[in-house]
Amino acid sequence: MTELTCFKSYDIRGRVGDDLTANIAFGVGRAFAAVIGTGLTVVGRDARTSSAELQAAVIEGLRAGGSDVIDIGLCGTEEVYFATDHFEAVGGLMITGSHNPIDDNGIKMVRQGARPISRASGLQDIHDMVARGALPVAAKRGDVQRETPRDAYVQRVLSFADLGALKPLKIAVNSGNGAAGPTFDAIARKLKDRGVPLTFERLHHEPDGSFPNGIPNPLLPENRPVTGDAVVATGADVGIAWDGDFDRCFLFDETGAFVDGEYIVGLLAAAFLTKEDKARIVHDPRVQWNTQAIVQAGGGEAVVSRTGHALIKEKMREVDAIYGGEMSAHHYFRDFMYCDSGMVPWLLMVERMSISGKPLSEIVADMRKSFPSSGEMNFRLDDPVAAVARVESQFVPDALDVDRLDGLSCAFADWRFNLRQSNTEPVIRLNVETRGDRDLLAEKVDELSTLLTQTG
């Protein structure tokens, strides 16, 4: 059996030519048809230079396996999710490297209804079939057609906001030369057709797989100033930036300051609680006090879930949650097949700003003051097991609440922390939050950092 290092817990990712080749992509297509089904299948791709070849290989594999294919071309991951549901397809595959290094690429997969595929629900079977080379060829080769439901997708995105409530605002948008540009333009055209008084300043808007302005990953602090500076330079009311396949959306206030993801989760939770009474909101456990306070004040029910898109989506379906959010800028919507979207969040935020009449900085200020947080800190450690053991020994005995749902969470009267191993990288991730005490936050961040990096 061939070793395939590109298969991860929820998707396929790796260095093109080494971990992920056209032959492997072809095998994935054939195995997908065998494992998930040979009905109609949707395939899309991002702007990376390697994506067209990998998409063509996946399509050929699907057709060899007997599947008919709809090729929706250059798009975002959420458009594959939407198209899979829209066309009532058996599944969908998105060729994307998202925010990973320029020589990487990957494949995200869903089954009917845009439900995620994980190791336990088909990905392992696909891996084993490709690794063994056991790839059946169908008696009848599938057909392929080029089609996109983008107009219907745009209508779905716009349905989340009251367009009549939107006020004249200037918005700076940074597509990072990824896939977001054309899709955003389709949304902007429809907004203009409906007389919505928004104006846009576009930055790095054209898709370019060579990424002349760097890999689109606004989560990295060093990548944020370009959007923040553009907000200030153009006098914009808000800034938006996306990663390569725009399934994550990042926001900047009118001063150019980055708005941390946990506060966006709180704001979106508040937005949905004005639309549906007693709604359930799912959140991850890394930073949660602000979200829980907002949901309680809005009359909703906050439900915690382990981190990760498949887990969040599963929990949302289980409790019929209207919205789910992760501090990493993934936002999930019940009325978008319980899937994540990078276009819905900014539209809802513009609606919130329009209705409140307040700038984004003012909307966020109270949350930052009431529940300051550290932001996620990553530690690459020689002995992570020993490091976590030191933290447990120091803090668990005195904690008011200890939760091991996702890593180690310890809560005290005025502060809490979450410490967890990354699902995708060999690092330990730490988040700390307090109840309105920045000095305590700094003290505990220093104490935990010292304990984690202690040697000898």
Automatic annotation (TrEMBL):
Gene3D superfamilies: Alpha-D-Glucose-1,6-Bisphosphate, subunit A, domain 3 (3.40.120.10), Alpha-D-phosphohexomutase, C-terminal domain (3.30.310.50). Residues 376-448 form the Alpha-D-phosphohexomutase C-terminal domain. PROSITE patterns: PGM_PMM. Its cofactor is Mg(2+). One of its GO terms (biological process) is carbohydrate metabolic process. Signal peptide: none annotated. InterPro entries: A-D-PHexomutase_a/b/a-I, A-D-PHexomutase_a/b/a-I/II/III, A-D-PHexomutase_a/b/a-II, A-D-PHexomutase_a/b/a-III, A-D-PHexomutase_C, A-D-PHexomutase_C_sf, A-D-PHexomutase_CS, Alpha-D-phosphohexomutase_SF. GO terms for molecular function: intramolecular phosphotransferase activity; magnesium ion binding. Pfam families: PGM_PMM_I, PGM_PMM_II, PGM_PMM_III, PGM_PMM_IV. Residues 7-129, 151-256, 260-367 form the Alpha-D-phosphohexomutase alpha/beta/alpha domain. The keyword Nucleotide-binding does not apply. This is Phosphomannomutase. It comes from Qingshengfaniella alkalisoli.
